[in-house]
Amino acid sequence: MTMLERPGYALHMETVDLVPPWNAPGEAVLFCHGVAVDCDIWSGWLPGLIDRFRIARFDLCGFGRSTLPGPDHRWSFDGLADDILAVADAAGFGRFHLVGESLGGTACLFTAAREPERIASVCACSTGHYGPAIQNVAAWRAAVEADGMERWSEEMVPRRFADGKVGAAERQWMHEVQSRTAASSLLDAADLLMGAELTGTFRQIACPVLLLHPDSSPFLPMTVAADLLTVLPDARLQVFPGARHGIALSHAQEGARAFRDFAAA
């Protein structure tokens, strides 16, 4: 674990390299999470990937164990891409794969559009590209300002997971991480997503993209994934039936297998 210094804040990052010598040096993959969680959301992906991939993951600025930015910080997708590349550089990655979820998936796609020579592929879970299509997020600010983060988290957990898709321990972990999140980070990230219009940018992505999408996200309906599939020049879509927004956790093993097969194609 490392704290990577950035202008005005520091990022918590972790690297794992358990690629056996007969598979070395292994490909590189960097994970990027979404709002109000941290990089531990990817824990279920690692066992299915560590024999082949050198792995880096980090907590986004203002989330998890990363520090809060200063009052002059302005959230932007360019800033998120800069952080992704800084983590990749610190991990010693040249060309690498990206796996992201929700806001992190959008940031990964933006990075691929901006830095095509660095990105081998993108796997984007529960990811959007057009803010006006996002549902049930505009009300977050009023809800958080009125009732606080713990109440917001209580309402958020069932929007991430359908009944029976994760156990009580995973639900409790998610609630605790969400409740600890700074309201300013959540709301600034939500504003960034709601203001996004990245259709033209994403048409420029040269690398292959795998979209993993739930059929029952309260935030990104299937129409968003279907539209994004037509926007991306080289993309495929895998849908998880009966799943809500948090497939990065609820369908970790399935996601890791899908990404592994996709990266090998």
Description:
The chain has 265 residues and is of the alpha/beta class. The chain has one domain: Alpha/Beta hydrolase fold, catalytic domain (Rossmann fold). The chain has 9 helices and 8 strands. α7 (222-231) links the parallel β7 (209-214) and β8. α1 crosses α2 (103-114) and α3 packs antiparallel against α4. It starts with a strand and ends with a helix.
Describe the secondary structure blueprint for this structure.
Blueprint: E1 2-6, E2 9-16, E3 27-32, E4 53-58, H1 77-91, E5 96-101, H2 103-114, E6 119-125, H3 140-160, H4 168-180, H5 183-194, H6 199-202, E7 209-214, H7 222-231, E8 235-240, H8 247-250, H9 252-264
Parallel strand pairs: 3-4, 3-5, 5-6, 6-7, 7-8
Antiparallel strand pairs: 1-2, 2-4
The number of domains is 1
- N to C succession of SSEs: EEEEHEHEHHHHEHEHH
Number of strands: 8
How would a textbook summarize the main sheet? Answer: 8 strands, mixed
Mean pLDDT: 98
Q: Return the CATH class.
A: Alpha Beta
As a whole number of angstroms, the C-alpha radius of gyration is 17 Å
CATH topology label = Rossmann fold
Strand order of the largest sheet: 1-2-4-3-5-6-7-8
